[in-house]
Please model this.
Amino acid sequence: MRQLFQLLLIFIFLAVPLFANKGKDLAKQLKINASIKATSQWDRVFQKERKMKKLGIDKLSDKDKLVLLEYLKNHAADSDAPEAAGI
Model:
């Protein structure tokens, strides 16, 4: 049981950075800067097909959309860790 718990902890600490890097890679690929919008604005972008299409997000899989949204919200202009320097 203890070994299972240790493996789970290792997986969590290794998986989280991988998802964060994937979100950053997706944003870079789509040429999207997370800090151009606030967190609530990113939520609205992902609620409207027209807005996602404008940014090219509509072509991503549902899983990639979730990863990208999480990254964009974590690095939005009003977040604790905005992407832009000096904010």
User: Anything to note?
Assistant: Residues 2-30 form the longest helix (29 residues). The helical segments are 2-30, 39-47, 49-55, 62-74.
